[in-house]
Amino acid sequence: MITISTFNIQNDIRSYSKEKTSMILDYLKKYHIDILNLQEVYSKLDIDLKKELKLLSYSSYGRYRFILRRIFNRINEKTPIITNGKVLSYHTYSLPFLPSLLKRVMTKVVIQDGDKVFSVYNTHIDFQHELTKKRQLKKILNIIQKDSNPIILTGDFNLKTNKEIFLEFVDELNKLGIQHVDIHEKTFKASLYHRAIDHVFVSREFHVCHKELITDIPISDHYPVLVQLDYS
In 3D, which of 124, 129, 111, 127 has the Cα closest to residue 2? Predict the structure, then answer.
């Protein structure tokens, strides 16, 4: 059994306290999460989180949007993959971002679990421009198409499940044998509609045993999505 979660933790760098890190760690431990994919992770939280993760035998993978971290500190987020699994390799991809001015990235790790190997991706795509979203989804598909491993893809896609470009993306993933894990609730707290924008996709090699929206963590404007998988 593999327990995964995607969680946009909200960039509140100006009001950050270590209690936020503690609550993320409590969530990780309470649900025995093997792979925790976060979005909007900023420097202060990242530094504190990494210190504590070492004590729990977890590692965090992924780089920031910008190399010059201090100059762009307020908006310089990462989409890390946190795991207790055996990581064979990792990489961070830059996604096309124009006409938006905010750079986006996608993190990948390759994990070995016994005699099985699979790839995990985590991203956070643009929230403003439809054209940018289309370009980013196309890049994600191009990357995944070249990956011969079973896939787990998660992230904040800033797209509700009824949006045409999201449905087209789901259809293209289905052609690759990758299914969308349907969460029939809102994941962005302020949304007026019961539609998720934080999504999980898994290859057919994975069987979804359980899926759940966690609603009792008050540190973000998003709810985390928790999914348990059996890997046959």
Answer: 111
Is residue 165 classed as helix, strand or coil in its secondary structure?
helix
45 SS3 class? helix
List, for residues 40-67, the tens digit of each pLDDT value. 999 899 999 999 998 899 999 999 876 7
C-alpha span between 231 and 33 (Å, rounded): 15
pTM over 0.70: yes
Is residue 6 a contact partner of residue 106, using CB atoms and an 8 Å limit? no
Output the 3-class SS for 3-14.
Answer: EEEEEECCCCHH
Under 8 Å between Cβ of 232 and 3: no
Q: Are 6 and 224 in contact (CB under 8 A)?
A: yes
2-231: CATH architecture: 4-Layer Sandwich (3.60)
Judge if the upstream peptide bond of residue 99 is cis by omega within 30 degrees of 0: yes
153-172 burial, b for 16+ CB within 10 Å, e for fewer? bbbbbbbbbebeebeebbeb
Domain boundaries, given as residue ranges, for the chain: 2-231
